[in-house]
Design goal:
By secondary structure, the chain is α+β, with helices and mostly antiparallel strands. The chain contains three helices and seven strands. The chain has helices at 2-34, 64-69, 149-153, and strands at 48-51, 54-61, 81-91, 104-109, 115-122, 139-146, 161-164. Strands 5-4-6-3-2-1-7 form a seven-stranded mixed β-sheet. Helix 2 links the parallel strand 2 (54-61) and strand 3. The model is unreliable at 11-44 (pLDDT under 50).
């Protein structure tokens, strides 16, 4: 009788230990997947975009007014910051640097979350002519960050991009 109790106790403890290990595995797996920063409703409310191993805190330009204004008249931009323009459909959307005071890298991103075009070191326009900067492929997203960032991280056409946009950010 005593051996049966001991065996039963060992079995119950083993099951309990297995259950604890399973819960810990699930928690660690969830934490690990959160650091990948995929588009989901469960992540932090701060939107981010990650290219290579670098992440940028982004402001979203969702409306035509926000997209027209962009980063105009900004005198500086934090090194880990940027603006993400989100368009309804993919298109070959042109940008310009009118009233933009700081040089920028402009990155066009497909709906499949891959870089399709990069304009490195786009310079502010002077008082006269301000050329359009046009991609050679359609994109649904366009990212603006400080000039030199894309070269610094070694970003290239075809690189995957991870975007964390919480549904609260889309309102």
């Amino acid at each position: 009788m005593r051996n049966k109790k001991t065996t039963l106790t060992i079995c119950l403890l083993t099951l309990l230990l297995g259950a604890v290990c399973l819960v810990l595995y699930k928690v660690c797996k969830t934490k690990s997947s959160e650091t990948v920063l995929k588009k989901t409703d469960t992540l932090s409310p701060s939107p981010q975009i990650c290219i290579k191993h670098s992440c940028y805190n982004i402001e979203l330009a969702l409306t035509p007014e926000e997209q027209t204004r962009g980063l105009m008249l900004r005198q500086d931009l934090a090194e880990d910051a940027g603006m993400l323009f989100v368009f309804g459909d993919e298109s070959e959307t042109s940008f310009w640097m009118k009233n933009t005071l700081i040089p920028l890298d402009i990155v066009w991103i497909s709906s499949g979350k891959k870089i399709v075009y990069i304009k490195n070191n786009a310079q502010p326009c002077g008082d006269g002519y301000c050329p359009l900067i046009a991609p050679d492929a359609p994109a649904q997203y366009v990212l603006e960050v400080n000039a030199g960032q894309m070269q610094k991280i070694g970003a290239a056409v075809g690189d995957p991009v991870l975007i964390n946009i919480n549904s609260n950010n889309l309102q």
